[in-house]
Design brief:
Bound molecules: heme C
CATH topology of the domain at 27-106: Cytochrome Bc1 Complex, Chain D, domain 2
Order of helices and strands: HHHHH
Strand content: under 5%
Number of strands: 0
Distance between the termini: 53 Å
Largest sheet: none
C-alpha cells in the first residue's frame, strides 16, 4: 500500500471513529424497520428510503452508504439533518436500521412495468 492510500485509510477510520472491520455490520432488518419508524427517519427519507417530499431528506436506499459513512452522517450530520447521539439511538439500533435499508431492492424501470407501457 502506498503512503497516500494509507493516509486516506487512516483519515477515514478516524473520521468514522470505527475500524474498517466494522464496515459490514450484522444488524437485524426486521428490528431495523421498526427503529427506522420509531426514530422518525421515514418522515424525512420516506418509508423505503426513497427520499422525502419537497426535499425533506435525500434518497438513502437502495444505494446504502457503507456503515462507517452512514454512522458518521447519523451521529454528526454534515448539513441540516438532526444529529442522533448514542443516548437516543443505540449503536445496535443503528446497525439494525442499516440492515433494513440494505434489504430494499431497486424498483423495476418504468419500461419494464406492463401497466406503465402505454403511458
Ligand atoms: C428532519 C429530517 C431528517 C430526519 C428525521 C432524518 N434525516 Fe437523514 N438526512 C436529512 C437531510 C436534510 C440530509 C442531507 C444531509 C444533511 O443535512 O446532513 C440527510 C442525510 C442522510 C444520509 C446521507 C445521504 C445523503 O445522500 O446525504 C443518511 C444515510 C441519513 N440521512 C440517514 C438517516 C437516518 C438513518 C435517520 C434516522 C435515524 C435520519 N436520516 C433521519 C434529513 C433527515
Amino acid at each position: 500500500m502506498n503512503c497516500k492510500l494509507m493516509l486516506v485509510a487512516a483519515c477515514f477510520a478516524g473520521l468514522s471513529g470505527a475500524p474498517f472491520a466494522q464496515e459490514t455490520q450484522s444488524g437485524d432488518a426486521a428490528r431495523g424497520f421498526k427503529a427506522y419508524k420509531h426514530h422518525l427517519c421515514d418522515t424525512c427519507h420516506g418509508s423505503v428510503g426513497q427520499g422525502g417530499e419537497r426535499g425533506a431528506g435525500p434518497k438513502i436506499a437502495p444505494a446504502v452508504w457503507p456503515y462507517p459513512a452512514f454512522a458518521q452522517q447519523v451521529r454528526k450530520p454534515r448539513q441540516l439533518m438532526i444529529p442522533y447521539s448514542e443516548k437516543t439511538l443505540a449503536e445496535n439500533e443503528l446497525a439494525d436500521i442499516h440492515a433494513y435499508l440494505r434489504t430494499i431492492k431497486t424498483p423495476p424501470a418504468a419500461k419494464d412495468v406492463p401497466l406503465l407501457k402505454d403511458f
